[in-house]
Design brief:
With about 775 residues, the chain is an alpha+beta fold.
Length: about 775
């Protein structure tokens, strides 16, 4: 066979010595037919048009004859003069350039258009051959495309499926997008001739993908927060600028308030609130409430819930009906508008407006379907938020009504509370309950969970706290009984299979501090809440060593240990929920220095400083803190008298009480009643108690008589018969006093009775009254 690229080898007499396979394909003769024959004869047959030869030969080609020396003989090599191109290849190339929808260009090594397919005629109305390809076509970024093409020309590395955007051309309503590929063109000697580019119009495909991506983004980003305003803001942020250049969301005012949406058609006087806006108009106001003007696409949408594609022209009649909106449209240069309803189950929630500016393509009919799908998802999220907001409003209302309104005034303690409700509503509460003897019970509690269930539980527990406080229990005993009450409440909830609390255990926290302004002591017990902190008048603070008790409604029987501490007058007690533990109440908390510097600062200022310093978004649950500044009851408002354990105790007590009541300016009727109460209390202590005996009169908002002894037995009211000579003491006291009771002491008990102060007008100076 001929070596290299030779087709035929001929000897010096003109006969074929070798006939290669490429020669068989090119000329049609086989090696058996050609070898040994004269090349002149073969050429004569070819020139004569031998029918068999024409059938077997499918192409012609130019050849090069070259003399070569083999041994001592001269031989002739027949070589191909160039690359062989078949007729089929030529037909394919003609079809590609003449009939294929694929846009083809041949660029020279200067990136000028040399040849193009007929499909390229639609890309430009101007002549293109001879121009630089970035000048021949209206490209959105010609510099970037020139750099890519030059890179392929230099490196030979093809670039495939690059998205190229064209600017809007005359006669087209949208900007086209092509998928372009660049390939380097080389000859047989590897010389760079230029580039071949192919382009496919993928505008519809890209638009469809963008619409699907938009719907996916809306579903991922919109509706994670149960707040109507936040949902609307999430919506406009998801569609601008991905779908529109500017977007409004206007929601019916009743929907924002949690009420049911109105049916269609919506009355013309129904107000809508502009809840969200996104666009390039700086300072555009939101929270505008107004009915939609008649005769506009927006009011029409609320009449039939059909979306509308609107072309905005300067002479559009509906612009005159809404001058404020017309001015925004004019400033933004908007030319295309889609108005879509926010609707669910045939009821209207609001309307959304999508705008595009001059730099963007106008909306198409396919975009209307996308806007409708976006608004359908947003409407569902808004309705969920509306229903939640209605429950939240009810829960917040219930909670506000259950909290002290306003905080009661106490002469021996100043109270200020910091309450930051959770977005979902919660079950945190506080109380400052006046107790006999000018004492005050300070209570902070927290019900885990949120919503109406937590608010109702709050109300039940607060009622239980007040009931138990009226029994004059110590904080540890009060928490123990409150835990029993909470346990019964949890058991009752568990019997309701559809109640949410059946799936979420009832978790309660509570702290109780009992302040005595006479002894200047505070007895504290806690369960599930942080350790209280006391800020002293000298500007220092310290944690109160109150051991944690078991959780309320727990299964164990562990006690709730109480701690009694001394509090100087002017000390500030701080108790709060768990949300404040790490930030304010912990020794290393970042806001603890605010408490350290409390000193004698006004409590409202201290509360506001803490509220302002709390970081946003870092707390879980409700934030509640009770601040209580202690005051001492003046010495002249208290009578303390030790009594003998004998019958002389009653006359001594009556005389001392009469003298003190005159000094306090108590009227005669109240003084007489008080003497009688003192006499009966002392008489019972002498008869049934254990020495030592102690009488105490306290003149505050109420007049309190207390008699203490070392006996632990509690007195009981008896109903004596007519002929009985004893047994009427406590019955008389219960009849005369507003309330009476018994409380345990470390040793013994105290029996007390309260009644109004009864300050007479003759002695009615302010010096004798409580501050």
């Amino acid at each position: 066979m001929p070596s290299g690229d030779a087709l035929v080898l001929i000897d010096d007499s003109g006969r074929v010595v070798e006939w290669g396979h490429p020669a068989e394909e090119l000329f049609g003769w086989s090696a058996e037919e050609a070898v040994g024959r004269s090349v002149a004869t073969l050429m004569s047959e070819a020139a004569a048009g031998d029918e068999r030869q024409r059938e077997r030969s499918s192409a012609t080609a130019s050849v090069l004859v070259k003399a070569v020396l083999q041994g001592t003989s001269v031989m002739w090599q027949v070589l191909p003069a160039g690359n062989t191109v078949s007729g089929q290849d030529v037909a394919i190339l003609k079809a590609m350039f003449a009939h294929s929808p694929l846009v083809l260009h041949v660029l020279d090594n200067q990136l000028r258009v040399v040849r193009m397919s007929t499909a390229a005629d639609g890309l430009s109305n101007a002549p293109m051959v001879g121009k630089h390809f970035t000048e021949a076509y209206e490209l959105a970024d010609p510099e970037a495309e020139a750099a890519v093409a030059q890179g392929v020309l230099e490196s030979g590395e093809p670039v495939v499926n690059r998205l190229v955007r064209h600017v809007e051309a005359p006669g087209r309503t949208t900007r086209r997008i092509h998928s372009v590929s660049y390939f380097r063109l080389e000859d047989s000697h590897d010389r760079v001739l230029g580039l071949v580019t192919s382009a496919v119009d993928v505008t519809e495909r890209e638009n469809a993908q963008n619409r699907l991506a938009l719907l996916d983004a809306v579903r991922r980003r919109v509706g994670h927060r149960l707040n109507v305003g936040i949902v609307c803001q999430e919506l406009v942020e998801a569609v601008v600028p991905a779908f529109a250049d500017m977007a409004y969301v206007e929601v019916i005012e009743d929907v924002i308030r949690g009420n049911e949406p109105p049916p269609v058609p919506v009355r013309r006087d129904v107000p809508l609130r502009r809840t969200a806006f996104q666009g390039r108009i700086a300072g555009h106001p939101v929270e505008v409430v107004r009915p939609l003007p008649d005769g506009t696409p927006f009011s029409d949408v609320l009449s039939d819930l059909r979306p509308r594609l609107v072309s905005i022209e300067e002479d559009s009649s509906w612009l005159a009906a809404d001058p404020a909106r017309a001015e925004v449209i004019r400033q933004s240069g908007s030319h295309s508008l889609i108005v879509a309803p926010l609707a669910l189950r045939g009821h209207a929630l609001g309307v959304v407006s999508f705008y595009r500016h001059q730099q963007q393509d106008p909306f198409e009919e396919e975009d209307v379907a996308v806007a409708s799908a976006v608004c359908a998802h947003a409407a569902l999220c808004i309705d969920n938020a509306r229903q939640y907001m209605r429950e939240w409003i009810v829960a917040q209302t219930v909670q506000r009504r259950l909290l002290p309104q306003p905080t009661a005034t106490h002469t021996t303690v100043e109270v200020s509370q910091l309450h930051l409700p959770a977005p979902e509503g919660g079950g945190a509460w506080f109380d400052a309950i006046a107790l006999p003897g000018a004492r005050t019970a300070l209570v902070v509690g927290d019900v885990a969970g949120h919503g109406i269930a937590a608010a109702i539980t709050l109300g039940l527990l607060r009622t239980a706290i007040h009931t138990l406080a009226a029994l004059d229990l110590q904080p540890d005993e009060l928490l123990a009984r409150l835990s029993d009450t909470a346990g019964r409440l949890a058991a009752a909830y568990a019997e309701l299979p559809m109640d949410p609390l059946d799936r979420e255990p009832l978790t309660l926290g509570c702290a109780v501090a009992l302040y005595d302004p006479v002894e200047l002591t505070c007895t504290i017990a806690r369960a599930g809440l942080p350790e209280p902190v006391v800020a002293l008048p000298d500007g220092t603070s310290s944690d109160l060593p109150v051991p944690p008790g078991p959780p309320l409604a727990g299964t164990g029987n562990a006690p709730f240990p109480a701690t009694t501490v001394s509090l100087r007058e002017g000390s500030t007690l701080a108790m709060g929920t768990g949300a404040l533990a790490d930030e304010v109440l912990a020794p290393s908390g970042p806001l603890r220095p605010i408490l350290d510097g409390a000193g004698t600062r006004p409590l409202p200022d201290l509360r506001d400083d803490i509220a302002d310093a709390l970081p946003d978004g870092s707390r879980t649950g409700e934030t509640l803190m009770l601040l209580a500044r202690t005051k001492a009851l003046p010495n002249d408002r208290v009578l303390n008298l030790s009594l003998p354990a004998s019958p002389e105790a009653a006359p001594i007590a009556r005389a001392a009480a009469r003298h003190q009541l005159e000094a306090w300016g108590v009227d005669e009727e109240t003084a007489y009643t008080t003497e009688l109460i003192v006499s009966e209390l002392v008489g019972n202590a002498v008869r049934y108690g254990t020495p030592p005996l102690q009488l105490r009169l306290i003149f505050d908002q109420m007049l309190t008589c207390e008699v203490s002894d070392n006996s632990t037995s509690a007195p009981q009211v008896k109903h004596a018969r007519t002929i009985d000579e004893t047994g009427r003491g406590l019955f008389i006291i219960a009849s005369l006093a507003d309330q009476w009771g018994t409380r345990s002491r470390t040793q013994g008990k105290t029996v007390w009775a309260e009644q109004p102060t009864g300050v007479s007008t003759e002695h009615g100076n302010d010096a004798g009254r409580p501050a």
